[in-house]
Amino acid sequence: MGGGAATATAAARRAALAALLAVAVLAGVASAAVYEVGDKTGWTVMGNPNYAAWAASKTFHKKDVVVFTYNKQYHNVMAVSKADYKNCDANKPIATWSTGNDSVVLNTTGHHYFICGFTGHCAAGQKVDIRVASSSAASSPAPAPAPSGGATAAPSPHPNAAPKALLAGRSVAATVAASLLSLAAAVLA
């Protein structure tokens, strides 16, 4: 029985070491954050969302992903130039998305201008200027905003709750790392 227990303990330690190695590798590779444009409001003109305030409350970095969620019968997403953004001109888009659930990777620093190309929507405020910080700026994503209206903050999500954590601005690497560390601790216990 002593030999079997020693073999099981060695295997558990190897598994824990493999998990820690995976954390180290993933931490350097998967550090992009995912943001839903407009948070729970989504991409719309209903309720007059303030996309300028939404974008200003976040710190975007290269490789982050912005997700536009909307009813595709009434909206779309167009990447446009600064001049077309200011003039709400949808005639020469750089790119257009129209699935109703569009993920856009922010591959460059600087400003990324998006508008809705449906007539009147941009003029009504359905446009957003997302500024991606240069690499010399802070390297971590902005924390999720505090709840408004004096509400009590909800507890942090469990490390395995990746989709919700990602939309709150947590990085993929942090979520995976927490999960793997929990696994390693359980194996070694």
Automatic annotation (TrEMBL):
GO terms for molecular function: metal ion binding. Residues 1-32 form the signal peptide. Residues 139-159 are annotated as: Disordered. Keywords: Glycoprotein, Metal-binding, Signal. Gene3D superfamilies: Cupredoxins - blue copper proteins. InterPro entries: Cupredoxin (IPR008972), Phytocyanin-like (IPR039391), Phytocyanin_dom (IPR003245). Residues 139-155 have a biased composition (Low complexity). PANTHER family: BLUE COPPER PROTEIN (PTHR33021), OS07G0570600 PROTEIN (PTHR33021:SF339). This is Phytocyanin domain-containing protein. It comes from Urochloa decumbens.
